[in-house]
Input
Amino acid sequence: MTDTGTTRTRPAAPGARLEAIGVGVAVRGGREVLRGIDLTVAPGRLVAVAGGSGAGKTLLLETLAAVRRPGRGKVLHDGADPGEAQVASGFVPQDDIVHRGLPLRRALGYSARLRGAGTDAVEQVLDGLGLAVRGDQAVGTLSGGERKRASIAVELLVRPRVLFLDEPTSGLDPATAAGLMETLATLAASGVTVVMTTHAPADLARCDEVVFLTPSGALAAVGAPEDVMSRYGVGTFEEVYGAVAAGSTAAPSPSPELPRPRAAAPAAAASAAASAL
Output
């Protein structure tokens, strides 16, 4: 059975616009891991950051989220410094962020109080993410997909305008991963800007845009999934990974910053998004 849920939680405001301008990030020892990243993420998009191991995917995610400051260049949220813009955002790391020994509803209740969320927020996110029937179950006894949705639920308590996730489908079976990606797509369709990292080719095909990094941490390609494959002259993302690793250069994009219209959501997802209005 697919471990999935449909989100009904609506952001307090339209999704945020993210920009990276000439961003570079170095690690200890001075080695530059990200190099000259120029990137724009339009509001309400589902965007995946991909690339080989060590390409700097998580570093780029953290930098876009303002968890990490760039060594050079700058990141903007809605055209302003993140500290000034104060855009409501959520960050879901690879590890679970919900206490495994507590019942899910109680754990979310504590998080809601700490974040100043309303008392109704817990039931809204439980219902919206298909977790209401698991509310009294200990987090540690949930399935992998349910625990990942529980972590997302924590971040949705404050109705973020942008959600960052580090490899959210890692360790999930294909059906569960597909269900989680549908949840993220529905969040984006409701207005939240969603940026995630992933290694999984199947995840990339379900996103609005893909950002591919070279092994040296530069941008290899940015665009809609089918456009990225076309620019490398290949038919699968496995082949894109191989081409990027081999140093092949993608054909230039004619208009890299123009967002494509979002494909129509599945009937169930569209109904859920409409119910949040």
